[in-house]
Amino acid sequence: MSQPQWVGGWWGGGARCVLAPNPGPMTLEGTNTWLLASPGSASAAVVDPGPADEGHLAAVVAAAAQVQAAVTVILLTHGHPDHAQGARRLAQMCRAPVRALDPAQQFGSQGLADGDVVAVADLELRVIATPGHTWDSLSFLLTGPGPGAAALLTGDTVLGRGSTVIAHPDGRLREYLTSLQTLRACAVGHGVAAVLPGHGPVLTDPVAAIDGYLEHRRVRLEQVAAAVAGGARTAAEVVRAVYADVDPVLWPAATLSVEAHLDYLAGR
Q1: Residue 18 pairs with which residues in a beta bridge?
Q2: What distance in Å separates the CA atoms of residue 97 and residue 51, rounded to the nearest whole number?
Q3: Reduced to 3 DSSP states, what percent helix, strand and coil does the chain have, rounded to the nearest 5?
Q4: Would the pLDDT of 19 be above 80?
Q5: pTM value?
Q6: Does domain 5-206 have CATH number 3.30.930.10?
């Protein structure tokens, strides 16, 4: 069973990460399941329950019990199985609804839309539509009582380490770049002090992290365009040229992102 670790203080409340036991090339150490509960609150939210692993889901319930809070809502950043597969089982365990943008992922409650606010005791989670990694990707601006700083929960849109796959054709690069700009403006406008990602460590300089992501995509677009100008005609040929220094185990995911870059360069 994974052991929860505390992260907190940015907004006058607490976020506990319960790390799912699904490490891998695409999931880094595993999926970060976030338990959100302000001190002394009887209710908590869970963001991204992760895989349908009974031990992991039991660890999430145990983490809530440790702070004497009951899980009252389950939120999904997107529907990929490493984030959402365990949602319905956790909903049954906690008798809590699952809220998501994709109707297929919702359970026992209404969905989510850009601008919605989900209140959990003294905490508020404002929904931010951030498509690009997938069509249904959401981020959440987390704030609490008082003037304390905010945090952003970003799912796979911004990771704690490495770059994000644009999961073509579901994901689209043009939308992804817009989403990064949206998150950057949110971070500046709300004094966001931390990014709580779906995988990898917490980021404590959100603006710098997002700027790094924007620069990475700018460079990658130049590389893909150069590969095409050099004679590459398929995504696989571009991957061999651009990702030559990357572990081939990641090439299938890279191919999805390259397809998205090619679409972008074609004006789509």
Answers
A1: 33
A2: 17
A3: 35, 25, 40
A4: yes
A5: 0.93
A6: no
